[in-house]
């Protein structure tokens, strides 16, 4: 396979959809984002060994940007690097899950209150479109697409609030929670419950009722924490 040039690349279809400028990422950044998405979605489950050479061959690059991407994943707690042995996808640390929920409640409680004060008709229409896509994904049990649209809904609220950077902070904080939540979405009725909870938040925003919006968000986020004991019994190799 011919090696791709290891230079900056213009990336950003998703960013353009959200009304932001495309951004430039390095080859290492592109590899990181691909691996990050695969780890969070559990397409790469905890305990899986990663081979630098195989990843480098897939991307058509040298091992240098692969090592950079793996080091960044290690710093984020998603892989464990063992010198002379290799790299393995990290298990989900149970201790990180409750803390992530606390942080989400604090920050998203604030952003949804602010969004309630500033939401326009166009903003509500954007949330309506997101909720409709969530319903479509739930109807065909597409948990992966549903999760992505769930994320888009919460990110949209941060943007409506005028503080989109808060979502970037939250993504880093809740990374382990997201991995655990992927195991809960197939539960009977869970996606439908999420849609209903999102509708309550949406209605509070449309009514510009900041207190109701915050209350609905806190209730919604209280439900996202998974039953860790049950998950550990079902997936004993996934948690630590």
Keywords:
240 residues; mainly alpha; 3-stranded antiparallel sheet; two-stranded antiparallel ribbon; 5 strands; 7% strand; disordered N terminus; transcription; TF_FadR/GntR_C; DNA-binding GntR family transcriptional regulator; transcription regulation; DNA binding
Biggest sheet architecture: 3 strands, antiparallel
Q: How many DSSP helices?
A: 12
Apparent shape: globular
Helix and strand composition category: mainly alpha
Terminal residue distance: 39 Å
Please list the strands of the largest sheet in the order they lie side by side: 3-5-4
The H-and-E topology, N to C, reads as EHEHEHHEEHHHHHHHH
Give the percentage of residues in beta strands.
Answer: 5-15%
Mean pLDDT: 87
Radius of gyration: 19 Å
Indicate the percent of residues in helices: 55-70%
GO molecular function, one term: DNA binding
Region (Disordered): 1-22
Keywords: DNA-binding, Transcription, Transcription regulation
Pfam family, one: FCD
């Amino acid at each position: 396979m011919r090696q791709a040039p290891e230079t900056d690349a213009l990336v950003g279809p998703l960013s353009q959809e959200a009304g932001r400028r495309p951004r430039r990422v390095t080859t290492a950044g592109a590899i990181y984002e691909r691996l990050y998405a695969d780890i969070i979605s559990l397409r790469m489950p905890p305990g899986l060994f990663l081979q630098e050479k195989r990843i480098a061959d897939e991307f058509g690059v040298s091992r240098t940007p692969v090592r950079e991407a793996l080091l960044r994943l290690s710093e984020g707690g998603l892989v464990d690097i063992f010198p002379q042995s290799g790299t393995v996808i990290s298990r989900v640390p149970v201790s990180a899950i409750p803390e992530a929920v606390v942080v989400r409640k604090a920050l998203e409680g604030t952003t949804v209150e602010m969004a309630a004060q500033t939401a326009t008709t166009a903003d509500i229409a954007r949330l309506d479109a997101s909720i409709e896509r969530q319903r479509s994904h739930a109807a065909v049990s597409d948990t992966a697409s549903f999760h992505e649209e769930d994320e888009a809904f919460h990110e949209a609220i941060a943007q409506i609030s005028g503080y989109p950077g808060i979502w970037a902070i939250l993504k880093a904080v809740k990374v382990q929670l997201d991995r655990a939540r992927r195991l809960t979405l197939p539960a009977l009725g869970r996606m439908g419950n999420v849609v209903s909870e999102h509708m309550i938040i949406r209605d509070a925003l449309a009514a510009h009722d900041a207190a109701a919006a915050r209350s609905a968000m806190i209730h919604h986020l209280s439900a996202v924490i998974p039953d860790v004991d049950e998950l550990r019994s079902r997936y004993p190799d996934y948690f630590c």
